[in-house]
Specification:
Elements (H helix, E strand, L loop, with lengths): L15 H14 L6 H8 L3 H7 L6 H4 L3 E10 L4 H11 L3 E7 L6 E10 L6 H9 L4 E9 L1
Antiparallel strand pairs: 1-3, 1-4, 2-3
Length: about 150
């Protein structure tokens, strides 16, 4: 997994191009611009500069929302197992985004959760271990992390 280091820097000391990249992203997300080309033309920014920096320049609150992980579980067909998983995520201030589950067969069910976890929780292996240690959790695998 890639280890990112973030800096909090006052925009006054940065080149104007970074602020323009943020402006272009705002135009795209608000649908005021229909394409990257249109957004870049609106603010006089080259597309190549936009693409170079778009994944690295964010407003402070854009990156403070946490990251999304997708976890696949195999659970026993017992009362309260899924509830204990949801409680665990609530206890670590995570937000459940999606829940998909199968009908139990042979006393086990597959469940996939997408969860937004706080940025302060960097150790996904610890989260995975804590989930596997919950009663009724037969397996937990982290499928994806953004």
């Amino acid at each position: 997994m890639e280890n990112n280091t973030y800096l909090l820097v006052n925009k006054k000391i940065l080149p104007e191009v970074f602020e323009k990249v943020i402006e272009a992203k705002a135009l795209l997300s608000s649908k005021k611009a229909k394409s990257v080309n249109e957004a870049c033309q609106m603010i006089s920014l080259s597309r190549s500069v936009f693409y170079k920096y778009r994944d690295y320049v964010f407003l402070f609150d854009e990156k403070s929302h946490g990251r999304i992980i997708t976890i696949s579980f195999v659970l026993t067909d017992s009362q309260g197992v899924l509830s204990s998983i949801l409680k665990y995520f609530a206890d670590i201030s995570a937000n459940i985004l999606t829940i998909n589950q199968t009908i139990p067969i042979n006393n086990s069910a597959n469940v996939t959760l997408s969860v937004r976890i706080p940025d302060s929780l960097l150790d996904l292996s610890k989260i995975q271990k804590n989930l596997i240690d919950l009663p009724g959790v037969m397996d937990a695998q982290i499928l994806a992390s953004e």
